[in-house]
């Protein structure tokens, strides 16, 4: 049986299976089988990966080769990430690293996936309690976000990358706390709160205010009372006004950095 053209395969099989895997990942499974749907997604994506691999021989030294390789890297990233989420760390880690190595060859066209891969590896090593290794991956993600010129990005792409950057900052704050560097931890905590405050539609007011108050406590301990006052003012404003009115107030309250 002859193979359907690559572009047709992407539009039909590939698109369909990726959407189905996304649907499966949103399913809330019962406590006795907490990873059932995600494991089904892993099986589905693994079969899809085999289909993509079948295009490699015919794509060699053609314009399609790069696309096939990038799609394989994306599937490695997705399968690996799901394996990590389902506590198969030994399986997922190498798959994500393999994907990252490929994306690093063409970073300009794979910014979001590369950022996602770095974050995933950082979180994996946080879970493994090796915070030095976690820092290495998370700093790569931070540098990628800060150094890339993305002025021509669509609003959706910009929002996605900013959310991933917020995740990077959040975990770096935890990492530096574990590494015994409270000043750097506080700095990244403040940065996390600041970037979170810009996403008002997604802002969890209670959680944000609690974190801001905790940061204020750190500044009090350091004798930086003005910085603590700013954090507490921001926390109070968010709790009193909620998302609908917090934007205007936060615009006039700069978090201590």
Describe the structure.
- It comes from Cymbomonas tetramitiformis.
- The chain has helices at residues 6-26, 36-53, 56-59, 65-85, 89-103, 111-127, 131-147, 155-178, 182-197, 205-221, 225-241, 243-251.
- By secondary structure, the chain is mainly alpha-helical.
- It has a domain at 1-105.
- α5 (89-103) runs antiparallel to α6 (111-127).
- The protein starts with 5 loop residues before the first helix and ends in a 6-residue tail after the last helix.
Quick tags:
257 residues, mainly alpha, 12 helices, 76% helix, cytoplasm
Q: Measure the end-to-end span.
A: 63 Å
Structural class: mainly alpha
Strands, count: 0
Helix content: over 70%
How many helices? The count is 12
Oligomer: single chain
Could you say which overall geometry the principal axes of the C-alpha atoms support?
elongated
Biggest sheet layout? none
Give the integer mean of the pLDDT values: 87
Poorly predicted regions are 244-254
In percent terms, what proportion of residues is strand? under 5%
Series of H and E elements? HHHHHHHHHHHH
The gyration radius over C-alpha positions equals 21 Å
Ordered list of secondary-structure elements with their pairings:
Layout: H1 6-26, H2 36-53, H3 56-59, H4 65-85, H5 89-103, H6 111-127, H7 131-147, H8 155-178, H9 182-197, H10 205-221, H11 225-241, H12 243-251
Summarize the structure.
76% of the residues lie in helices and 0% in strands.
